[in-house]
Specification:
heterotrimer, A mainly alpha (113), B mainly alpha (185), C mainly alpha (142), A: 113 residues, mainly alpha, 3 helices, 0% strand, B: 185 residues, 70% helix
Chain lengths: 113, 185, 142
């Protein structure tokens, strides 16, 4: 239970970085921290006490006490999608810096394309 | 034993996130985020997910390289602005929202089964007949590519669209700007 | 972009072969050991990015150009879709229509191995392509 609350704390710190920071790179870092917290929460729900990784070896061919493999399959796709999203945000940062010369969002006021 | 190591690693991740958000140097904050990601990879390994630990390490290295490439040669030519009213409003709004979120999370996390005893409503059938249906010892891959292959197709589509978006933003030929110095090829 | 010093180039020449072979092994054995298409694809992209960082853009063009990376990306996605559409041979979209074989061997579990290969190629090519375009973007060109 305390692990879920700590994961919620990490999520709240990521939301704080996205909302209240003025530097564009800090906003990207906030999005990264939100992704870490969400993936961690999904894997924490599926953990089983003294459970093994869900790989069947030749020694025991029965599924005794495996951890839940379904959240792991979902988090696999989530991590790689997070990387594609970070690459897209980095491309936006590069373009914005080329256009305005700064990473400060308070100085990006001209809305001409 | 595992709960003690998990608590230490989660505390390490929280301290790393605080450093990444609050420090003024951009290079230090990017490296701190890298440390948080690697701590997350060790947590995945402890929670019985070696597949996720491999992917998290490789993705973390690529994220660090991309972010460092963005910040390393670009100086910030702004002057530091003074203390504004909007900053106080944003910080207090996030604190209020964070408080409400933690209260509701505490109430609603009690409905989850306790940590260490998952419900396994859907996965019981996958664990029971996964090996005999698919003949693949790696059950996570069997779920990803046989039972839930639609989700993998959707994920391939999302990555494809995001990368094409990034490539389209960074292309050289585009609209002709009329207020820049027009030295066009 | 230019490359790095001679020590980095020599070490990269020795190491990058091992990285590519290990990533290919993780992709191919995706149904036997932890790993699979996504893990192997990310490692393969890391290997190519190492080649680009150590040798510079001109030398890496002889291995894989940026339009070539985008082409491999599309081919990987199309391959995965073709495997899904070929499932109509056995009735439904996305069925596992190849023979299952004996467990714990390399060629087993039907279409899982081919899907792993298609996804590995796709992920490696797209992550490398986005890094090449990001690194070569200079501020003087608009």
């Amino acid at each position: 239970m305390v692990f879920y609350i700590l994961t919620g704390v990490i999520l709240m710190m990521g939301v704080y970085a996205v909302v209240a920071k003025k530097n564009l790179i800090k906003i990207v870092i906030g999005m990264l921290i939100i992704e870490y917290a969400v993936n961690l929460m999904l894997v924490l729900v599926g953990y089983r006490k003294d459970g093994l990784a869900p790989i069947i070896t030749k020694a025991e061919e029965s599924t005794a006490a495996f951890v839940d493999p379904l959240p792991q399959a979902l988090v696999v796709t989530s991590i790689v999608i997070g990387l594609a999203m970070t690459a897209l945000m980095a491309a936006l940062c590069v373009r914005l810096h080329q256009r305005y010369g700064t990473f400060d969002i308070l100085h990006m006021r001209k809305l001409r394309g | 034993m595992i709960t003690a190591i998990l608590l230490i690693l989660l505390a390490f991740m929280i301290i790393g996130s605080i450093i990444a958000i609050e420090t003024k140097d951009l290079l230090s904050s990017v490296i701190s985020v890298g440390a948080v990601g690697l701590g997350l990879s060790v947590v995945f390994l402890l929670l019985g997910a070696p597949d996720l630990a491999i992917i998290q390490v490789a993705v973390e290295v690529l994220t660090l390289i991309i972010l460092l490439r963005v910040i390393i040669t670009r100086e910030d030519v702004t002057v530091a602005h003074r203390y504004r009213y909007a900053e106080v409003f944003a910080t207090s709004a996030v604190l209020v929202f964070g408080g409400i979120f933690i209260v509701f999370a505490w109430v609603s996390f009690r409905q989850l089964p306790e940590f260490g005893g998952p419900l396994l409503t859907v996965a019981r059938e996958y664990l029971g007949s996964g090996f005999s249906d698919v003949n693949a010892p790696n059950l996570v891959t069997a779920i990803l590519l046989d039972y839930r292959a639609y989700d993998t197709l959707g994920e391939a589509t999302v990555i494809f669209a995001a990368i094409i978006g990034a490539l389209a933003i960074l292309r050289k030929t585009g609209r002709i700007h009329d207020d820049r110095n027009d030295i066009d090829s | 972009m230019t490359g790095m010093t001679l020590i980095v180039k020599t070490t990269t020449r020795l190491i990058v072969g091992f990285i590519v072979v290990f990533a290919a092994s993780v992709i191919l054995h995706g149904h036997l050991t932890p790993g699979g298409g996504f893990a192997g694809g990310s490692m393969l992209a890391c290997g190519f990015v190492l080649l680009l960082l150590a040798f510079g853009k001109k030398e890496t063009h002889k291995v894989l150009t940026e339009p070539g990376a985008a082409t491999w990306d599309s081919l990987g996605a199309l391959g995965f879709l073709c495997i899904a559409l070929l499932g109509y041979v056995a009735g439904v979209f996305f069925t596992n229509f190849l023979p299952h074989g004996t467990p714990f061997t390399l060629i087993s579990a039907g279409t899982v191995m081919w899907s792993n290969i298609a996804i590995g190629i796709k992920v490696a090519a797209c992550l490398f392509a986005v890094y090449v375009v990001l690194a070569a973007f200079r501020a003087s060109e608009s």
